[in-house]
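User: Design a sequence. Structure:
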């Protein structure tokens, strides 16, 4: 069930049987010549909605902009400062917890968000520890990267090997092609992009990785592969989410 497509009465009824909620979190940043700017938000949103169906879980509105300062050398990229994203995550969680949500399962689509999401969890726990003594409604937060599952990793190796790359990867572009078949882009690639050799600021990134890709060859991406990645991720994440709901 999607929060944005539910009435408040439906949300209230849901809370009688579960306190879990899925929160897709991504980024708005360049993804090379054939990747969509929204790739890192589209992937966890699409997978999160299917996970919601599989696990009978509520899905919150996607956090679509994240930590992406290093992509600002490319048109269309947007970013939040880490301090802004921490406050945004904190407000999502605390406002939802007022209604009784307690298990916050973030599905992340962007490696650059990881450190900041964990910092936000620390901020939330600090607030709970310092300001309240209410232990009857504990807040538990967990993050899972959609690509970081056994099934997805196996498929990446099987389908793309070294061409998978580190940014604008074959798998993430495939997932967006499956999610939005009317927006598949074609582009000419002269082979794989430079391998990862560090990331600093936006100008530096553009110099090191001129067309935006890192080590990938996403001309190999297909919507058919995207379907396989989505199914593998949903299968693995369903198990992780169910375990998280009942964990101590
Ligand atoms: Ni990405």
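Assistant: Done.
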């Amino acid at each position: 069930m999607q929060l944005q497509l539910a009435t408040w009465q439906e949300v209230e009824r849901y809370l009688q049987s579960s306190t879990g909620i899925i929160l897709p979190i991504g980024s708005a940043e360049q993804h090379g010549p054939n990747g969509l700017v929204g790739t890192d938000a589209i992937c966890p949103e699409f997978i999160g909605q299917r996970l919601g169906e599989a696990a009978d879980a509520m899905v919150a509105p996607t956090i679509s902009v994240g930590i992406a300062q290093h992509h600002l050398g490319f048109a269309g990229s947007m970013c939040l400062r880490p301090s802004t994203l921490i406050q945004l995550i904190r407000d999502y969680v605390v406002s939802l917890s007022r209604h009784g949500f307690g298990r916050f399962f973030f599905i992340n689509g962007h490696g650059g968000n990881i450190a900041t999401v964990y910092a936000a969890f620390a901020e939330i726990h600090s607030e709970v520890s310092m300001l309240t003594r209410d232990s009857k409604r504990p807040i538990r937060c967990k993050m899972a990267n959609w690509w970081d599952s056994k099934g997805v990793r196996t498929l990446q190796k099987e389908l793309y090997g070294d061409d998978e790359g580190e940014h604008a990867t074959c798998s993430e572009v495939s997932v967006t092609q499956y999610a939005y078949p009317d927006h598949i882009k074609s582009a000419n690639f002269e082979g794989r992009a430079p391998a990862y050799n560090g990331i600093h600021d936006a100008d530096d990134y553009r110099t090191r990785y001129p067309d935006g890709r890192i080590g990938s060859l996403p001309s190999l991406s297909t919507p058919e592969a995207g379907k396989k990645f989505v199914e593998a991720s949903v299968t693995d994440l369903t198990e992780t989410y169910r375990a998280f709901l009942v964990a101590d």
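The two ends are 25 Å apart (CA to CA). The chain has a mean pLDDT of 96.
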